[in-house]
Amino acid sequence: MGILPDEIKPAMQGIIPSHVATCSLDGTPNVTALSQIYYVDADHVALSYQFFNKTIKNVRENPRALAWLVSPETFESWDLELEFEHSETSGPVFDAMDMQIEAIASMTGMKGIFKLKAADIYRVKSVEKNVGERIPLSQIDTRPGVA
Amino acid sequence: MIPDRVVEVIHGPAWLYAGTHDEKLRPAHTFAVGAVVHSDREHVTFFVPRSRSERILSDLTSNGKVALAVALASHEAYQLKGGYVSSRPTDEKDLTVQEIYRPKLFADGLRAGYPEQIIKPLALGFAYRPGVAITFRVQEVFLQTPGPDAGKKIV
Amino acid sequence: MTVEDEADVDLRGQIAENEKIIEKLNQELAKKSNDVRIIQQISSEITSTLDLDSILEIILRSMDKILGFQHVMVLLKGLAEEKLRVFASRGYANAGTGAAVHFGEGVIGVVAKRKKIMRVGNIGQSISYLLAVRAQMQEAGQLDAVQAPVKLPGLPNVESQLAIPLLVKDRLIGVLAVESSKSNAFDELDEVLLNIVANQAATAIDNARTYQMVEHLSRLKRFFSPQLAEAIVTGGADDPLKTHRREVTVVFLDLRGFTAFAETAEPEEVMGVLRDYHAEMGKLILEYEGTLERFTGDGMMIFFNDPVVLPNPAERAIRMAVTMRDRVRVLGVLWRKRGYDLAFGIGIAQGYATIGAIGFEGRWDYGAIGTVTNLAARLCGEAKGGQILVSSRVAGAVEEIVETEEVGTLTLKGFLRPIPAFNVLGLKAPSP
């Protein structure tokens, strides 16, 4: 189908942290920052699972999630409605994420300690680019930001 | 009941993100610009741009549950969860808080090593008014700094 | 304006817009065709030479001047190890040639380990995130040992890296890597370009290295056993051609009466004798792990303890010599029947020699020089048929295992004082 546009890819490079909001079955929301959301294909993204946490727990009870990303090129933000599909511990997506983590872990003295447990695969249900919320760079210092 | 360090970070400034959900348990998310911890150290008011407030307010009036993530660019982070109390448009006092907050965010980002061409638009480039001031009563506080202890309840 | 006029304006506007788009697409197509053409040219250049340095130079120059990558490294895999070394680089203040990267270390090391391309654009961010996790774990006492971050060649404040494995079939030859201090500096098109360069480069480099190795191997096989030659070429042993001093046991041997025999016998007979003789001697040299430094027809020089250090070199030399004498005795029975008047003599000495490459460009040989080699040669010259003459040093080293008899002191050319010598009678019977 191809719901993710090409222009969102820079936002998935891990240059600006992304955020994901989830909700437990008993109705408690949870918000957390992520170092990176990984582009899998035009309909899927992946989140890395290193340590067990609320996000991981929530989506396994209630698969809906909301991801908020910011493009490091245009600084526009995107809202992605996601649905957790499954978790992978092997395969090309897992391997690509695992390779990155292995490389960075060795560069920070965390070899063997910081490891990818799984790649959580989400289907993208909707994509919305948020318009009208930017203050032009030229005006940042001079004008208070009117939404 | 909110620990000193968390109050410090919230006022410090912190990067703020709020999460809610609707009646179908679908999550919603917004960033906030500026927040204030009340003197009772139980209530927190955070400021959301009006353009992003509609869905949040709808959720809050429906079920009242809210999570507020507060983080420094150095990755030190906490999450506060609680129940919605009230909301109103931001006033002059709130705007003053925000005007003080924003350059501090910029400085925080620079300190953490972000290059200026990224941190300036990130800290100062999001429109923040008119805004909505949302107040909630904090029931739980969690550690959110990344690592195996993330999610640990501290209050 | 009428409705038709307005529609007209709309249409014209749309046509202009379309023309702009077509122009842009044409430019992109031209650029892509150009890129492909350039890469084809690079590929034909590097596959037309077997010189490794030239190939690397062409690759680096093209990556920089034509494809616009400012910081490039080529690392090649050590033949017998899970390690890469920087062989060539461009765009760095310090070339870093020879710097090592182990499999699994950093982007380059992981690419080598997994044999897959990897592109990262947020190294600074990722590192700071992970350092924060590490700090929290340390504070919480969750880290047992403090691991040092690994030291890697390349830009100190690298933000983006794109590394691709150089593969021939599925065999890893090395890694081609580009870097930038800007985040998100590389995109999918860069991956495509690198892929094409890497495919060509891998084959060209592999061929050049194989050629180098075969040359080197054939040179070494003249002196060393195949296993040792291979070990040297694959980097498992030190390069013996580098000049060094070592204490060695030297064995000289030859056939008395060979010169006269060679002059009078038929060529086929001479070759036949040499063939049988060399076959037997060669087997024993390999068996006892001696190094054959030279042979001239019937004469040979063998030494022990270089290039491979051995326990009890003197003992090995003696055992080999005794066995050689026995074998030649057997051959001698046949030779006597045919009327050949040939007898075997050996000289053995021990001492320090200077060892390494002797010769000149285009003709390097592995050789040993020193008093010890002269002594062994002279002892051999003095040995009568069937004798193994050894210096007192050697006799002392092997007195436990062989029976010897004194043959007195010998006045040898090149030696001021007469040298005491001993003849080896045979191996002592093993003690019960």
Helix content percent band of chain A: 10-25%
Q: Counting H and I runs of at least 4 residues, what is the number of helices of chain A?
A: 2
Number of strands of chain A: 7
The whole-angstrom Rg of chain A is 17 Å
CATH architecture of chain A: Roll
Distance between the termini of chain A: 33 Å
CATH architecture of chain B: Roll
**Strand order of the biggest β-sheet of chain A:** 2-1-5-6-7-4-3
The largest β sheet of chain A comes out as: 7 strands, antiparallel
Helix content of chain B: 25-40%
Low-confidence stretches of chain A: 142-147
Question: Are there runs of chain B of 5+ residues with pLDDT below 50, and where?
Answer: none
The biggest chain-chain interface is: A-B, 43 and 46 residues
The first-to-last residue Cα distance of chain B is 7 Å
Shape of chain A: globular
Proportion of residues in extended strands of chain B: 35-45%
Strand arrangement within the widest β-sheet of chain B reads 2-1-5-6-7-4-3
The SSE order of chain A reads EEEEHEEHE
List keywords for this structure.
heterotrimer; B: 155 residues; alpha+beta; Pnp Oxidase, Chain A; 4 helices; globular; C: 432 residues; Beta-Lactamase; 6-stranded antiparallel beta sheet; 11 helices; 14 strands; 46% helix
Quick summary of this structure?
Chain A is of the alpha+beta class and 147 residues long. Chain A has 2 helices and 7 strands. In chain A, 16% of the residues lie in helices and 37% in strands.
